[in-house]
Amino acid sequence: MSAASQKADGGTRKARSRAYHGRDATLVIGAVGALSAVIIANQFLLRFLFGTDLLGSMRTEAQALHEVQVFAAWAPMFVAFVLASGLATLSAPAAIAAVASQPGRLEAVPNVVRLFIGACLAAAVLGFGVAVVLGPEGLGGTDRIFYYGGLAVVWLTFVGMALLALRYRDTGQVFDWLLHNTAVANIALLILPQMYFWPLFGLNVQEAYSTAVTIAPVGTLLASYGYALFIRDQL
Amino acid sequence: MAIAATTGTRRSTRTMQNLLWAAFFGILVFYSVMAFQYFFAHMAGQREWWNILQAWLVSDEFSFGEGSVSVDQRVPYTANSYFMFVHATMGAVALAAGATQFVSEIRNRYPEVHRTLGKIYFFGIWIGMAAGLLYLSSISIWDVYSGAAFGISLWALDLLVLATSIRAYVAIRNGEVVTHQAWMAFNYSLVLATPGLRLFWVVLGLTLPFNQAQINTGVATYLLPFCLLFGLIWFSAQRLRDHRPATA
Questions:
Q1: What is the percent of chain A where pLDDT is above 90?
Q2: Among A43, A175, B42, B238, which has the highest number of CB atoms less than 10 A from its own CB?
Q3: Which residues contact A129 (CB under 8 A, 6 or more apart)?
Q4: Which residues from chain A sit within 8 angstroms of residue B240, using beta carbons?
């Protein structure tokens, strides 16, 4: 076999390998994204409309009343944030699969990738805006503003790196940065269980919130990083 | 002329990269020296260089007043000074030794230097994190600076630094260079949380009306993903450089 055909054969194997892992990843990331979308929708929209607050027992009356008043004044921003976050978490598996189907070099940027990146950008900015208008009087206090602000900077950097990778058309790089953006979009999935977990060890609600938001991003990024390396090892 | 322009652009890009690396390394070594000195001063009953610098940059009240590490942690630090002494000194050694490991010229031209500094780094990390965990085990989680949330985060950070360093070590022993580089990038990013936290103490102490403990809890909520930017971007740049096609 000539060197050129060996290289082509390696490229075909890479394509098959990415396609195989893309199917598994699509299912897992899709399930994770759906759950995250439900959690975010519940916390920032549905509970105000239907009273279905997953963290209802943890808010004080004053906090709950304050947040209802803020929602009434800023409802469009809350709706936009929920839509952007939902779009990000739900389009992630399709975006990643679309990139994985183009081994080596991206000839064209799939529209779903543009949609995903745009949704991430909007969710990062709107998330910070929602935290600012909720202010320190809501659940999470000042730490929530710190968290959404810092995370917005991190997430916007991830979006920037994904755009840079798209500019170079390197499939591997785009794949990795889409994964990391997905990790940030799905942080809510690791925050909610911790709000119930840490009080079992005597932490109050504020302490549980601060702990949850500190640990959750590292957990999701560890997962995305490990998975990106795993895929790379299979090639 | 086009080739000369391209070469000139590459040269200026390389110069800028070298300057950034030099600044990064300089800041880390500067901080490492202060971290190394911290518990020498604490155990001698003197003011620590870092706190003096922070007081000069922000205010005496911020560095030595209510809510400061100096006040809040005087008792637990003194009671467990040997654990914290080892943690701080070994962490400082690892921080300085690890900084140069990301410069490709050093790795490629002086592999023995890279390996020696790597061994120093692992030694510093393993001893330093073990001492940190022993300190955390010896006090109540609520007695950790700025409270239980930060205490749990420190537990998670120490364990994650240990785990990723061991993963990276196993990878290089197995000859898996790329995996080793990937986990070292992740690992060192976590270690950067220490100087990163101090940097945010100063920046936010200057700009926000909170004391050090309040800023500490707030910064902790985004510090780790912020520091991971370093590792993720560095590793991505390495891979991009490896894949970039050679010009004619």
A1: 69
A2: A175
A3: A77, A81
A4: 165, 168, 170, 173
Say which range, B11-15, B73-77, B177-181, B185-189, has the weakest mean pLDDT: B11-15
3-state secondary structure of A170: strand
Task: Give dist(CA B46, CA B34) in Å, integer.
Answer: 13
Q: What is the 3-state secondary structure (H, E, C) of chain B?
A: CHHHHHHHHHHHHHHHHHHHHHHHHHHHHHHHHHHHHHHHHHHCCCCCHHHHHHHHHCCHHHHHCCCCHHHHCHHHHHHCHHHHHHHHHHHHHHHHHHHHHHCHHHHHHCHHHHHHHHHHHHHHHHHHHHHHHHHHHHCCHHHCCCCHHHHHHHHHHHHHHHHHHHHHHHHHHCCCHHHHHHHHHHHHHHHCHHHHHHHHHHHHHHHCCCCHHHHHHHHHHHHHHHHHHHHHHHHHHHHHHHHCCCCC
Please compute, for residue A196, the number of CA atoms within 13 A of its CA located in the half-sphere on the CB side: 8
Q: Quick one: average pLDDT of B57-66?
A: 94
pLDDT tens by residue, B98-121:
988 988 888 889 999 999 999 999
Instruction: Give the minimum alpha-carbon distance from A108 to chain B in angstroms, rounded to a whole number.
Output: 18
- Cα(A213)–Cα(A100) distance, integer angstroms: 31
Cβ-based contacts of A214 with chain B (< 8 Å) = 149, 152-153, 220-221, 223-224
SS (H, E, C) A85-135: HHHHHHHHHHHHHHHHCCCCECCCCCHHHHHHHHHHHHHHHHHHHHHHHHH
A 10 A CB-CB count for A15 gives: 17
Q: How confident is the model at residue A5 (pLDDT cuts 50, 70, 90)?
A: very low
pLDDT of residue A229: 85
**Predicted confidence (pLDDT) at residue B135 exceeds the cutoff of 50:** yes
**Residues A209, A144 contacting (CB under 8 angstroms):** yes
**In the structure, what pLDDT confidence band is assigned to residue A172 with cuts at 50, 70 and 90?**
confident
Residues 164-203 of B with CB under 8 A from A: 178-179, 182, 186
Distance between B122 CA and the closest CA of chain A, angstroms:
21
Q: Is B225 on the interface with A (CB under 8 A)?
A: yes
CB contact under 8 A, B152 and A215: yes
The one-letter amino acid code at B245 reads P
Q: Is B219 within 8 Å of chain A by CB? A: yes
Return the biggest CA–CA distance within chain B: 69
